[in-house]
Amino acid sequence: MKRKWIDKKVLILGLSKSGTAAARYLSNKGADCFITEFKPLQDKDKELVETLEKEGIKVETGVHSEEFLNDSYIAISSPGIPPKSEIFARLKEKNIPVIGEVELAYLEATSPFVAITGTNGKTTTTYLTSHILSSEYDAPVCGNIGIPPTSLIEKNPDYYVCEVSSFQLDSAPTFRPQIACFLTFTPDHIDWHGGLQNYFDAKASIFQDHKQPMYAVFSGVDETIYRFSKQYTGEKFIYAKELDKNCCYIKNDAIFFKRNKEEEIIKLNEITLVGEHNYQNIMCAIVVAKLIGISNENIKERIMSFKAVEHRIEYVADINGKSFYNDSKATNPEASFVAVKSFQGKKLTLITGGRDKNTDLTEFCKDYINKYVSTVILIGEATQRFKENMETNGFNNIILANSLEEAIDISLNLENEIVLLSPACASYDMFNSYEHRGEVFKNYVQSKLQ
Question: Do 237 and 291 meet the contact criterion of CB atoms below 8 Å apart?
Fold first, then answer.
């Protein structure tokens, strides 16, 4: 239910996309908005701050001042602020409630949400789901994907197709989507959440009894999620596993959906996305589309017309018989697993490395590098640890490069038919973001075509 915001003092934590979108939405509703950003003002944000202040939104940087905190009606938190940050303790002392931007959008919106969460795969699934639903409805993507849902409220779409991170769910106490999907679960963000169980609990909170969605959609191949699904008491659908009912699965080289009857949706050879993991993403999107009532014809057409999301096993170019793929979004080994396995049977050069997350590399090296990779080119801060782990697990065809560009140059002189950038690491040692890393890769590869 929408609140009355006129003359309410609202504190926005963080000068992020979600924070500024929330501030603009609430300011337009009559709230007195204060954005407090603990980091010093950066040059890239100066124009934004000037624009916000012209719109009547107050902004401070480099501090969380008492002036901004005092007498706030509510605080809206950006998802990247860790829960143990001092600002939350100060707000608790002042009895100021804190919610996230997704929670705010849910409380203010009149249309239903489709929420998609998981460690890996959620961005592709979110875009694909939106692409399918948009054949019959206004169903834009939003959330952790970079488009704050509050920025869409005034447009009143039919559905919000919302990628939700564990950070966002941690600050969404009443968020109750119409359909909630849980794709994958592997260790990530452990420091932020304070432990693996806390990370899982944040993801699973969307399915708690008091927030049960109308429909829950679970992976049938992720053991942790499938085990969790068996305890879930609401109406649920399982994908990537054939059951008696309420499922989506692969059989006879085609994807089928089963509710009251079995229906063939699309043949595997009609799908352009690469990899078994993408079949799983597609199956999840099919379940959502069928629940909302999209025709089989439109589902099939939209799957066939869907292009890979940027930086996620994204085809870049063919040079001298070598196909280059950009999977810069793979910032942990588990994400690289699925990328590497997607090229099973091909001679593969893997460019990997970056800022080390210090996750266990045994499975990555033993079960994936050894089985699916011909040559590894290592870059970045993680080079030495990755090299030692690969050699310990019996893989020695390793080349070291000082830059991503050098790695690409080296790959051009190898015999392998696929060159895949899938770093299994964060990007911040050499790049501003995984997007920046992916752009550098694509631009340099494409420069070799000239």
Answer: yes
pLDDT tier, 85 (very low <50, low <70, confident <90, very high otherwise):
confident
| Parallel/antiparallel/unpaired status of strands 262-267 and 254-258 | antiparallel
Return the closest-CA partner of residue 32 out of 51, 58, 65, 60: 58
118 close to 183: Cβ distance less than 8 angstroms:
yes
Q: Are 378 and 387 in contact (CB under 8 A)?
A: yes
pTM (predicted TM-score):
0.80
Give the pairing of strands 9-13 and 32-37. parallel
Tokens of 190: 């452990």
Q: Are 442 and 316 in contact (CB under 8 A)?
A: yes
Host H or E run for residue 22: helix 17-28
Beta carbons of 10 and 26 less than 8 angstroms apart: yes
Residue for token pair 């590894």: 376
Q: Do the beta carbons of residue 59 and residue 15 sit within 8 Å?
A: yes
Query: What tens digit of pLDDT does each residue of 254-289 get?
Result: 999 999 999 999 999 999 887 888 999 999 999 999
Inter-residue contact 357 to 448 (CB < 8 Å):
no
- Across the chain, mean pLDDT equals 92
Round to whole Å and give the CA distance between 57 and 51.
Answer: 9
Token digits for 444? 């340099």
Residue among 122, 73, 119 nearest 99 (CA) = 73
Integer CA distances (angstroms), 327 to 146, 183, 347, 435, in order: 18, 19, 17, 10
Beta bridge partners of 179: 114, 215
Q: Distance (Å, rounded) from C-alpha 284 to C-alpha 115?
A: 12
- Per-residue pLDDT band for 166 (boundaries 50, 70, 90) equals confident
What the block records as the tokens of 128 is 């694909």
Alpha carbon distances (Å) from 435 to 420, 425, 439? 16, 13, 6
- C-beta of residue 163 within 8 angstroms of C-beta of residue 143: yes
In the prediction, which pLDDT does 279 show? 94
Cα–Cα distance between 79 and 83 in angstroms, integer?
Answer: 9
